[in-house]
Design brief:
Elements (H helix, E strand, L loop, with lengths): L5 H14 L2 H15 L7 H18 L4 E4 L2 E4 H15 L6 H11 L2 H14 L6 H7 L5 H8 L4 H5 L2 H13 L16 H16 L19 H13 L4
Antiparallel strand pairs: 1-2
Helix pairs in contact: 1-4, 2-3, 2-4, 3-4, 3-5, 4-6, 6-8, 11-12
Length: about 240
């Protein structure tokens, strides 16, 4: 069973309707009506296509006005895509929700995938849909990867050590701020420190700028004497001339 954070979704919906005008509200609820009208005999493919069509139309009705919720900020059209996804999920038979999620990602472009990804932990509080999330972490589109890796609770919560380490290294390679990976400190491990130290060494040898926040990934107690000396030298001297 896929369980959602109904309170958070209700709060997001209220923020959304408080931000947009009546015509936009009418469009939003008309789409929800179309989705609900498929009950009780819908299929995941039917629902995914309905969501995809609505998501494609979102930019015609909504703009990128910023809506703030707790520590996150949503663009208005992005939030609408996510909220419509949650309604689509709720109208699907429980045993078919994983299939529906996979189909929505299949039909989604990168922008739409970001909208789903950013709130997936609210649509699925138990991580039942995490496999699609892990597969998405292979994306080479930096904004989509950033939505997965940064300020999202799922990597630290559900990724095994190898997958988590690869996600952190990819964050560094893309020069994203690894310090924004939630619970990075809790998931520190010797292999990650060694991998990050190797990356730092390679960048210094080629006199290239090391990735942003690379030192936040390294725990010195996990390193040998030479690697510790490397870290100290970089900290004191920066990139050699």
């Amino acid at each position: 069973m896929v369980s959602s954070d109904k309170k958070a979704i209700k709060q997001l919906t209220q923020l959304f309707t408080d931000t947009v005008n009546q015509e936009q509200i009418d469009w939003f609820y008309s789409v929800i009506g179309l989705i609900q009208a498929t009950l009780p005999n819908n299929t995941p493919k039917q629902l995914a296509k309905l969501w995809s069509e609505a998501s494609n139309n979102t930019s015609h009705y909504l703009d990128n006005t910023i809506i703030n919720y707790k520590t996150t900020s949503w663009e208005c059209d992005q939030l609408a895509r996510f909220l419509l996804f949650t309604h689509t999920l709720s109208c699907c038979h429980e045993l078919q929700r994983k299939e529906l999620c996979a189909l929505c990602f299949h039909f989604a472009d990168d922008i739409e995938a970001i909208a789903i990804t950013r709130g997936l932990h609210l649509a699925d509080t138990e991580g039942k849909l995490v496999q699609q999330f892990i597969e998405l972490s292979n994306s080479n589109y930096p904004p989509l990867f950033a939505a997965i890796a940064l300020n999202h609770p799922w990597p630290a919560r559900y990724f095994n050590t190898e997958a988590f380490n690869q996600l952190v290294l990819k964050t560094l390679f893309l020069d994203l701020d690894a310090s924004q990976i939630i619970d990075l400190k809790k998931r520190h491990n010797p292999a990650l420190s060694i991998l990050a130290a190797d990356l730092l060494r390679e960048r210094l040898l080629t006199k290239r700028q090391p990735p942003q926040a690379i030192l936040s990934v390294i725990e010195p107690q996990h390193l040998n004497v030479n690697d510790k000396a490397l870290i100290n030298r970089f900290y004191l001297e920066g990139i050699p001339a």
